[in-house]
Amino acid sequence: MRRRRSRNRSETPSGSLALGKLLRLLVLLVVLLPIAEWGASVIMARMSANSRLPAVSDKDLAKLYDTDQPGHRRQILVESPGPGDGAYTPLVEYRMPAQKGEWVSVSDDGLRGGIMGQSGPRIAVFGGGTTFGHGLADAETIPAALVAALLRDGIPARVENRAVPGWYSTQDRVAFAEMLASGDKPDVAVFVHGLDDFMRCGKPEGTAWSARLAEVGAPIGLEQVIRQSSLAALLHKLGGKSQQALDKEQALACGSDSQVETSLARLDANRRLIAAMAERFGVKVLFVQQPVPTFHYDNAKRAVPMGPDQMAPYVATAKGYARLAEKRGSGSLFEQDLLWLAELEPAEGNAYVDAVHYSPAFAKLIGEKLAERLAQMLPPPAQPEAPSAPTPPAESQPSAPPSAAPASPAVPHK
Questions:
Q1: How many CB atoms lie within 10 A of CB 344?
Q2: Statement: the pTM of the whole predicted model exceeds 0.70
Q3: Segment 42-53, tens digit of pLDDT
Q4: pLDDT tens-place string over residues 172-183
Q5: In terms of CB atoms within 10 Å, which of 44, 134, 296, 361 comes out highest?
Q6: Domain ranges in the chain?
Q7: Does CATH number 1.20.1740.10 belong to domain 59-201+253-377?
Q8: Alpha-carbon torsion angle 75, 80, 86, 87, nearest 10
Q9: What is the DSSP string of 256-268?
């Protein structure tokens, strides 16, 4: 028997039902998406902090840093920022933001460890992550070792660590020009170059932040919103790098000989431009060709071996340094005020704590070599005046015999 539908029961049109479901879904998305974004950002921050820790045991970490306190070193590594932690800065694209950690500090104006030293000529040191001191405490960086060596030799100086992880000679040139244009003139400017200059070969020239800034400046659309999403970034990270991302990284690397030659010419041109600006503004300048593990260094000496895949991204530095060594003394390179440290390595202890960054002992040695050269460039410290011979007390001085006053000539009476 066919059942009759109750007339008292209200009938809901299918369109209204679908609209209700859609509205509930939208409300759910509005509530859940911000929570998911926040959760993804927290996870990404933790993953970023964990990525700074080397995947080595405490025993190997002790060998790398010549320390008996590997836990202490891990704390320093967690505090050490990288290019991805930078904050947007006009003209140079990014700098390290201010931070005040227990071992790593950056001032509001971007100085690692603040101003070191209290008096004397002002020395500004530029460079990349090796000069900034990745994995090193404030007091272990190259600029810190520089000021300590100068003071030990009785040469007062104020040293600023203006290095930024990922920077190369073009950013150093722009930052130095910006300083001079604003009236901020140091007495000496030191530029530690070599590693990062052969890591950026793409055309047009770009930095570690160029791709990120290009995305931010792109027309607003769904694709850009997805790129800026922490949730999308987390899913992308968990899924691994795409072939497109790998191809982009390969395009930035200095793979071919022609790219290496272009980077070498750029480094040489930047040094000439920096020297010209320094001369016009009365600033002394010192260029430093920093050591790299791919040139004149036996990697078998490493405290912890590095695999070929870990060193593969730095092959271009081997080609670039070989060409620099060939051209030295030929007149084709700008070698004025150049301190060549490419063959330098510590006599004892470990040199590199990862693929390219220096150990505390190696950073100290480099800082001391800089101090030796700068001691020849800086004015000699003022010598204290020799104390004058004390004047004997008045009562101890022999009194002069009284002398007779000369007789006045007689004046005749008129």
A1: 17
A2: yes
A3: 565 555 554 555
A4: 999 999 999 999
A5: 134
A6: 23-52+208-240, 59-201+253-377
A7: no
A8: 50
A9: SHHHHHHHHHHHH
